[in-house]
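Re: duplicated header lines in exported structure tokens

Our pipeline writes sequence and tokens for each protein into one text file. With two proteins the header for the second block appears twice in some exports. Here is an export where it did not happen, for reference. First protein block:
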Amino acid sequence: MPTCAHSRLSALGVYGFDRLEPVVLAALVSEDPLLLIGASGTGKTYLLNSLSEVLGLEHRHYNASLISFDDLVGFPYPDQERGGVKFLETPATVWGAESVLIDEISRCKPEHQNRLFALVHERRVQGIALPRLRYRWAAMNPCSADQGGTEDYAGSEALDQALADRFALFVEAPDWDGLDDEARRLVADPGGEGRIADDGGRLLRQVAAWRTSFCEQVDDCPEAILEYVTNAATALNGARIRVSPRRVRLMARSLLAAAVVAGELTDQLKLTVLRASLPQLTWGPPAREEAVAAAHRFSLDCGTSFKGGWVHRFLVERPLARKLDILMVHGRRPDECTQAVSRLLATESRERAAAFAFATYAFAAQGRLVLGAEGVNDLARVAAPVLSVEGVVSWQERFTDHGTVHPDCDRFARVLAELETSGGRYDRARQFFNWCLVERVSPEDPAALEAEIDSCVRKLAAGEAS
């Protein structure tokens, strides 16, 4: 990673962004929307305005907390010749812009935020295309503390999630504690104040060359990039960090652009782009770092550790029935299947691990799954407490006791009330819920988990996978 002395952004008088420079430059190459997030005074708008200067762009800088829509489009007046409406343009209107910075976007009135949606997503205003507009940038402070943020930025509200999902990349501007000694000294130097960014056209030429390479590859994106983002998105969704299908495509574009800029596709570059592709920080706490790191590792494992990647897919798919599908279709070697099942039981939540073991153990013991003895024993270890719970429940928190006090009894009882008593489904669900009560386990969605158990049992009983 370049240091201050060698980074392209430091040549513009922008310091402290070295670690995220590939992300910023990737946004220039892909021309997808970029959002900077950070405390006041961290150089967000300075960076973006400097980029517009050094690239020679016709630039517009709007403060979203103050702007009216007329400031953006001008004043409408009737078009006498063609009918319809024209807009009286001013030097500040958006019509001729090549780059737009929407500053303080998180302080924008809801009605303006809705109007900015088309600008960010479609390069349109009032349904009218902006053919010259290449770059759509925005900046915001972190969400205020009462919106889930960590700082007290009164008035900086959570960004609308649909609008946030239209931005491809999210860069957190470093504060003073995030700067190294060299960057701190350069930031403190008052000599660059008010200076126009000018690097002699070097970045402009580089971006043009990178853009050409990007456009040549984007319609036939390298398989390594598609595999990484697909598996990372599956893993994140499995960890309940939603990644939309649209975002997966944006992630692939961003990773391709970053690889073009860097000249190679490294594991560290993949992780950097993955972290910068998640919008959760714009409406609350960021995506859990441990979950992002785990998704990254799983994606790397898929390409290296496991032939065909089926074990990886088995681990990151969310539905238990889908996991079972993969195991039944692709599991061919007992030791490999045993490893996969052991990792599932170790990494899933207690209730999901118990549900999978409860549904599959009896069939595994009969040889209906391709598992070694260790794998069957692992399932038995987790399933045994569920299977034996009827013999040890002696306290009052039972479905038959109207004086129950356990907070989940009502939730479980509602699920049971909707099940038929035939076919063993009711008894099986009651057995599993009794274990939950004894172990103080609280599934997020009891009905969905019960349905997954039933689906697994049905698949194994039929000996089929969809």
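Second protein block, exported in the same file:
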Amino acid sequence: MDNAFERIYAVVCRIPRGRVATYGQIAALAGNPRWSRVVGYALHHNPDPVRIPCHRVVNRLGEPSSAFAFGGASAQIVLLAEEGVSFTDGRVDLTRFGWKGR
């Protein structure tokens, strides 16, 4: 599983400031589109939140994680807002702020 986590962290590190990606998107880019829950687990155990910006990962609807490991959903919203990402009705506009990573 460590190798999977390393692949997930490597993808998350590529998300630019001011952009977000979904759990499913990270899973697919890490090599297995069925790993959405694994992505969530990996991010919950993020060993270096300064270097691995897990706050930039939201669910498929653009919602922050209620289980955000580093202060809850409100902390995730604050971190994203500091990067210029805005929320409408509790969601990020994925068309506007979604990362088009490959």
